Amino acid sequence: MSGSIEPGSGGDVVIEATDLARTFGEVVAVDGIDLSVTRGEVFGFLGPNGAGKSTTIRMLTTLLRPTGGSARIDDHDVVGSAAAVRRIIGVALQDSSIDPLMTGNELMRLQAVLHGIPRSEARRRCPELLARVGLTGAADRRVATYSGGMRRRLDLALSLVHEPGILFLDEPSAGLDPTSRLALWEEVRRLNRELGTTVFLTTQYLEEADELASRIAIIDRGRLVREGSPEALKATVGSPTLRVDVDPVFFETTRRVLADFGPDRPAREGRVSIGLDGGAARVAEVVRALDDAGVPVTHLELDAPSLDDVFADATGRRLEGADE
Questions:
Q1: By C-alpha distance, which of 21, 1, 18, 32 is closest to 67?
Q2: Banded model confidence at residue 2, pLDDT cuts 50, 70, 90
């Protein structure tokens, strides 16, 4: 097995994967992962594009059969009891298809019918959900007129029609503007806080994972590389990261100077990054050393350990732009 995750403290396990794998011909998308999520958790699945996040969530939601291992949702096997799994989960996928010719109200009512919800109950529940995601004013407009953020919020409302206790969100804020992203985050928090909804969230956004998840797993190239609370993961990195931008002519000199102050960390082109032993108290010392070496610094910053630092420590590269 290439990676395993222990369940969060307390509560019963409602999402569980054992040696879960998926290949597409010669391509290994998910490489034998273990994970457990307890009831009431917001669990973040963090990684770059192509890491295996969406493939994993599609297996857990019965949309894709595993080629190895197994998975259970609230003790229902995702292959053998797929229909039972679908009844108890809500799913909002990144590439879900919503009929653009229908209105928000029409889609909500159709979703209620598909889940066998009585008409009287649907008449109450659908408007409430549209109001919850801020779409009351657009309920009778065709979805073709919705912005990207409005469509994502409608997709969230559709996934909640049957009041699932377990909600899967695949890249929920991808492509959203900052205002729409914050509104969606607040709704996820409210669902978890007020209704106790278990949320399995895939994302490539560091801030999203940090803001929403009580526990995070980092996946890279189909394998789990780190797991824990955001605070615990960042604590494993230790020293804050010092980032120094210089002219390429001085790059190697800068690396030699900074090597005396802490271990090298992955950085983008044109930048030297280290874990600064001693933290902020040594910044002035670093500046003097670079000045003595004749290095003109164009930019210098010191940041507390981030989830990107955790990813870099685990994989040797930065999360942003890793898909390139």
A1: 21
A2: very low
Q: Is the pLDDT of residue 308 over 90?
A: no
CA atoms within 13 A on the CB side of 222: 15
Q: Do 252 and 314 touch, CB atoms closer than 8 A?
A: no
For the cut 60, the answer to whether the pLDDT of residue 8 exceeds it is no
* pTM of the predicted model as reported, rounded to 2 decimal places: 0.79
Tokens representing residue 150 in the block:
């409005």
Residue 293 Rama label (left phi>0; alpha psi -120 to 50; beta)? alpha
Q: How far apart are CA 77 and CA 71, in angstroms?
A: 6
What's the Rg (C-alpha) of the chain?
Answer: 23
Residue 1 pLDDT class (50, 70, 90 cuts): very low
Q: Half-sphere exposure (CA, 13 Å, Cβ side) for 166?
A: 24
Tokens 């794998």 appear where? 21
Strand partners, 195: none
CA angle 274, 278, 284 (to 5 degrees): 80
CB atoms within 10 A of CB 85: 21
Label the pairing between strands 76-77 and 89-92. unpaired
